[in-house]
Amino acid sequence: xxxxxxxxxxxRPLLPGLVVALAVALVGYVVHHNVDVVSPHVVxxxxxxxxxxxxxxxxxxxxxLRFCAKKVLRAGIVLLGFRLSLSELGKLGPxxxxxxVAVVVATFFGTQWLARRLGLSRSLGLLMATGYSICGASAIxxxxxxxxASEEEVAYSIALVTLCxxxxxxxxxxxxxLLGLTATEFGAWVGASVHDVGQVVAAASTHGEVSxxxxxxxxxxxxxxxxxxxxxxxxxxxxxxxxxxxxxAKRPPLLPLFILLFLVASAITSxxxxxxRALADIKNAETILLGMGLVGLxxxxxxxxxxxxxxxxxxxxxxxxxxxxxVSLAAVKLSGL
Length: 337
Hints:
single chain; 0% strand
């Protein structure tokens, strides 16, 4: 059999699931294009979960959906790196950068501490800590390979971070006015505390263009911290598995390939060689690939099984949401944004 025939034989079982995931991702993209407040990622993962919960996913679709949940999702995360450039991060200034880092660190470790206090698993605590501190469902999907979490835990984490991010769209504008925040302060607060990029745009746009631009910049700075955070998690997982595993067992890489490619993408953007049109096209491709990956991730989850998890994760979600909101507001005030 020729190399081409072998490749086709390997790819053919994936096609039905890939086509379904692509179709759903495109629906999410179109919905977001017409209704800004609706995140395409939320649409994608919701459709996957609803299909698994209330429909029936036939066997021919499963290989492609599993491929999307692993490989396609990581490709989307790599393209996320093209949103970032070192020159943009430098515009915030050192005090603001320190403030953003402080918010991420406090939320990441604070959420894991809360999870332990509530008696939840280390894996669920890690998933939710990453989602709340960085960028919601995308960050949860990125850290999942190192979390040793069940499908139910992944689904519950994504559902809760999506719920809180959606609530933030409707609650933060009113709270910002009540607290007397300026447009700059409100934008920085939204960028530092809201999870998904689409949700940040929706919430910040209520206070004008100045608020929106700063919120986006602060949010992308948080996204930039995904790479070093995942690198640290990977090293910790490597050490933990190395201590516990039997001799000769496979250990996770020191730095996963998709994280390295994420950094390469960011470095390319920093050079300024890519045109605005090229970056827009890459962003569209990133949205579609992440959407396909989240469809695959959601398709493995039956929400009816989440009853076994109980209401404690909801308490963690609300506590973590309050934590990131309070810490980020304090950081905004102290940094003088």
